[in-house]
Amino acid sequence: MPVVGMVGGGQLARMTAQAAVGLGATFRVLAASEAESAALVTHDVVVGSHLSLPDVAAFAADCDVVTFDHEHVPGAVLASLESSGVLVRPGSAALRHTQDKQAMRDALTSLGVPCPRYAPVSSVADVEAFAGGSWPVVLKAVSGGYDGKGVWVCASPSAAAEVIGHRIAVLAEEFVPFRRELAALVARSPSGQGAAYPVVQTVQVDGICREVIAPAPGLNLELALAASALALRIASALGVVGLLAVELFETPAGGLLVNELAMRPHNSGHWTIDGARTSQFEQHLRAVLDLPLGSPAPSSSFAVMANVLGGTDSDIYDRYIHVMAADPAVKVHFYGKEVRLGRKIGHVTIVGDSGDEVEAVRDRARRAASYLRWGTEDGD
Fold this sequence. Notes:
The chain is of the alpha+beta class. The protein has helices at residues 11-23, 53-60, 75-83, 92-99, 101-110, 124-131, 157-164, 221-238, 272-275, 280-288, 317-326, 358-374; strands at 3-7, 26-31, 44-47, 65-68, 118-121, 137-141, 151-154, 170-174, 180-188, 194-196, 200-205, 208-214, 242-250, 256-262, 302-309, 331-334, 344-352. The strands form three sheets. Strands 9, 10, 11, 12, 13, 14, 15, 16 and 17 form a nine-stranded antiparallel beta sheet that branches. The chain is globular and about 55 Å long. 45% of the residues are buried.
């Protein structure tokens, strides 16, 4: 059976490892330490740095295909692997558009994909010229940002000056007064086969995804199909192999703007473990192995996923028992991570049937996630 190597030992690799078992694929992980989330549950773990070409190359030598649970492997390392004949999926040319926000915006704009207005800036004067008197302005680190890190909403030139003072490459984008945030998750294989999951609504708090509702409530069919078609077109144009998550703004006028891209399993797709015919993790493996893609169809009327963040008490076992007893339909997924305040340590999912109310299920998911975090159902 083929050997899949995933660079990165976080929770995405952990859940991909579980999917690999069912497919019969041999799964290896390059983790920074033996205590990382995926390393705790994976048989074949190599400890090394994703920044080191020797470490990554030695790891890849025993893999049939190499893929990723994050976007932080340097482009030069990826290019070196490819030049030596390693099968890297997605490849360095595609991944560049998740590692460099200006490259992403430039590529999407050239494809005619609707995006927020943007410009590279290197001084406060540049930001003020971009703003044209209209604040706030969003400044984004060109590389390295995730989970809200590397994104600043600046309400004034003085706020922009603080960001510019970090002396990192940044991009200015217009502040979009969106109606809500959506995500379109698709998969593409080397053979060109594509599959699209239902478009979901995501709820972000302080830059961190807190909740996902699948499919997005009240989203008209025409706009949902347009979002999926757009994601598939982007995947094809950029040569993506594996999963592509396209984060979108739904504007008050009913249009769509692309916010971000991710070429890996994504937080917006965690609901698929319990709520779809094929989980995003299995689908990613199928795609990078060039296997026929699985059905992305939901297995229930809808699903709600809520992220579990760390609280102030690391002893969650008693709270875990309470949640399972209080609502047996809740599916709890823990990542084996040390509890730290605000850190993603797991998620809960509840699937709903046609007779269930979406808001009622959302409330149940929120209460379960809150209890696991704080020991009370009415926390945040």
